[in-house]
Amino acid sequence: MKILVCISKTPDTTAKIAFTQNNTKFASDGVQWIINPYDEWYALVRAIELKEKDPSTAVHLITVGGADMEPIIRKALAIGGDEAIRVNAESHDPFYIASQIAAIARQGTYDLIFTGKETIDYNGSAIGGMVAELLDLPYISLATKFDLNGTTATVIRETEGGEETDEASLPLVVSCQKGVAEQRIPNMKGIMGARTKPLKVVEPAAAETLTSIVSFELPPAKAGVQLVAADNPAELIRLLHEEARVF
Amino acid sequence: MSVLIFIDHSEGQIKKASLEALSYGAAVAAQLGTTAEGIILGTVNTDLATLGKYGIKKIHQAADKALDALDAQVYAKLIADTATQSGATVLVFSNNFNGKAVAPRVAVRLKAGLVTGAVALPDTSNGFVVKKNVFSGKAFGHIGLTSPVKVISLNPNSYAIKEGEGAAEIVTLSVTPPAAKVKVTAATQATGEVPLTEAELVVSGGRGLKGPENWGMIEELAKVLGAATACSRPVADAHWRPHHEHVGQTGIAIAPNLYIAIGISGAIQHLAGVNRSKVIVVINKDPEAPFFKAADYGIVGDAFEVVPKMIEAVKKLKGIA
C-alpha cells in the first residue's frame, strides 16, 4: 500500500501576527515555522501507524514550497515516512497547490492521500477536497478516526453537534483532525535517519492560479475588559442584557 | 448570470448556517444585479417555497432520499452541473462541516476561484474581493478572485439572516445522481441541543471547574440563557466532556454573539477558536489569566460562587421561577 501525506508549514501557534509592505505580506521576520499541526499530529502520525501495522506500506510526504520548506520536511521525515517530494513552487492559491499534489499523486498511484484539516495560517480547508476532485476520488473530510480493513476504510467524521461513520473503498482522500492520532516527538534515531531519506525536488506542473491575496487586515483592538465585582454577578447579567444586548 | 446557494440540511431541518448563506447569496445577487437561486439535495420537512423570504427566486431540488446522506463527490457533481445549466457565476456555501467537504470539489469542477471562511459581502468596486478570516481568527485576508465563476464559503455566524416577503419557485433537478462511493453506516446527533457552530450564545468551562461532576451549573446557566455548552482542550482530553464540545485551535472554531468562559485561562490556542466571538465574558479567580486581555466583560472570582448567582440573575431577568 502507498500513502501520500500532504505537509505544509505555518507560523508557530504563538507567533505574532503582523503584516508589512502596506499590509500585503505576512511579517515573517523572527517567526518560527513549524509543520502545520494538523498535517503533523494527525495526517502524518496516522500514516506512520498504518505502516507500523503493515510494514510493506510506503509513506511518501509531499509539500509545495520553496527551499525554505526543506527543514520542515526533514523534521516531518524525522517523525516518519520513507521519502519526500517537494514541488518547487510558492503559492497561496488552493487550486494551484492542489493541482501540484494531484500531478504527483497521478504518477504515484497512491491508495490513500491524507491532508490535515486545514492550515492554521490561511484556514482554507480546501486542499483535500480539491485533490480528490482532480483525481476523481471519494473524499471524507474532518475525520476524527480512521481505520483500515483490507482495502475498506472506516472513517468517523465530525458533523454539526455529532458524528457520522463512513465506509469507503480505497483509493480515498481523507482530511484529518484531532482524534485520528496523537502527536509524536521525533527521537534521535529518527532525526539522524531523516538526513539520508530521499527528498526529491520537482518543478511544478502547469496550473492556473484562480485567487490572490490583495491585502491583510488586523482586527480592531479590544477596548479592554470591563470588570464587575465578584459579589455582584447580577450587574454582569444586566450589562450583557442592556449594554451588550446579546440576549 | 445568477447566484446559486447550497442549502444544507440534517434530520429534515435546514441548517441555520444555510439561512445565513441564503441571505448572503441574495445580497450578492442584488449587488451584481442578478437573481439568487438555491439548490437542495435530499429531503426536508420544510416547505421550500417559503425560502423565498430570504430573497431566493428559485430552488433546484433533487428530492431523493438517497441524497440525505452526504457523499461529497456526488454532491459536487450535482451542484456544479446545476450551476452550469442555470448559468450561475457565483456559488455560496456555508463554511460548515458539509460545506468544507463539498465547496472545494465544486470549485475544481467549475474551475472557480474559492474563498473559504468569508465574513463579509464581496467588494466589487475593483474586481471581486472577499474578506475572510486568516491566522485562526487573528487577522483578515482580502482575497481577489479572478476566475469567471467564483465560489464563496461563508463562515457561520458572520452574516445576519434577513427575512422579507416572497415565495420561491421549486424546480426538480433533472439529473440522475451517480452512485455514492462513501456509505454512511451510522450517524449520531446530540439531540435537543443547539449545535455549537450554530449557537448564538455559548457557555464554556475549563480546568478551573476541577471535575466533570461540577458541570451541572455550566449546563444550567446554558439552559436558562438558551446557550450551547463548550469546553477547553484539557477538559475534552480528560474526557470530562465530549470531543465535539472542544473549542480552540485543535477543536472547532466558533463565532457566537456571546462566549462566556468559566475557569479557562485563555491560552493562545484556545483564543484561536473563540476570538471571533462578538462579546467575550471571562470568569476566573486568577486576575492574571491571559483571557482577561481578550475579554469584553469579566469577573475576577470563584466560579463556584459567581455562576450560581449569574443563573439566579438570568432567571430573574427572564421571569423564570
Descriptive overview:
The complex is a heterodimer of chains A (247) and B (321). Chain A has 247 residues and is an alpha/beta fold. In chain A, 28% of the residues lie in helices and 32% in strands. Chain A has one domain: HUPs (Rossmann fold, 3-Layer(aba) Sandwich). In chain A, strand 3 and strand 4 form a beta hairpin. The mean pLDDT of chain A is 96. Chain B folds into two domains: 171 residues, Rossmann fold (3-Layer(aba) Sandwich); 123 residues, Rossmann fold. Chain B is 27% helix and 28% strand. In chain B, the strands form four sheets. Chain B has a seven-stranded parallel beta sheet with strand order 7-10-6-1-4-5-11, sandwiched between helices. Chain B has a five-stranded parallel beta sheet with strand order 14-13-15-16-17. In chain B, strands 2-3 form a two-stranded antiparallel ribbon. The longest helix of chain B is centred in the N-terminal third of the chain and has 17 residues. At the A-B interface, helix 1, helix 3, helix 4, strand 9 and strand 10 of A face helix 2, helix 3, strand 7, strand 8 and strand 9 of B.
Present the secondary structure layout.
The complex is a heterodimer of chains A (247) and B (321).
Chain A (H helix, E strand, L loop, with lengths): L1 E5 L2 E3 L7 E2 L4 E2 L6 E3 L1 H17 L4 E7 L5 H10 L3 E5 L6 H15 L3 E5 L10 H9 L3 E11 L2 E8 L2 E8 L2 E5 L11 H7 L4 E4 L8 E7 L8 E3 L4 H11 L4
Parallel strand pairs in A: 1-6, 1-8, 6-7, 7-13, 8-12, 9-12
Antiparallel strand pairs in A: 2-5, 3-4, 9-10, 10-11
Helix pairs in contact in A: 2-5, 3-4
Chain B lengths: L1 E6 L1 E2 L2 E2 L1 H17 L2 E7 L16 E5 L9 H15 L1 E7 L2 H13 L3 E6 L10 E6 L4 E7 L4 E5 L14 E4 L9 E8 L11 E5 L10 H10 L2 E4 L1 H5 L20 E5 L5 H7 L4 E6 L6 H4 L2 E4 L2 H16 L3
Helix pairs in contact in B: 2-3, 4-8
Percent of sequence in beta strands of chain A = 25-35%
Residue-averaged pLDDT of chain A = 96
- Taken in chain order, the helices and strands of chain B follow as EEEHEEHEHEEEEEEEHEHEHEHEH
Compute the CA-based radius of gyration of chain A.
21 Å
Q: By CATH's scheme, which homologous superfamily of the largest domain in chain B applies? A: HUPs
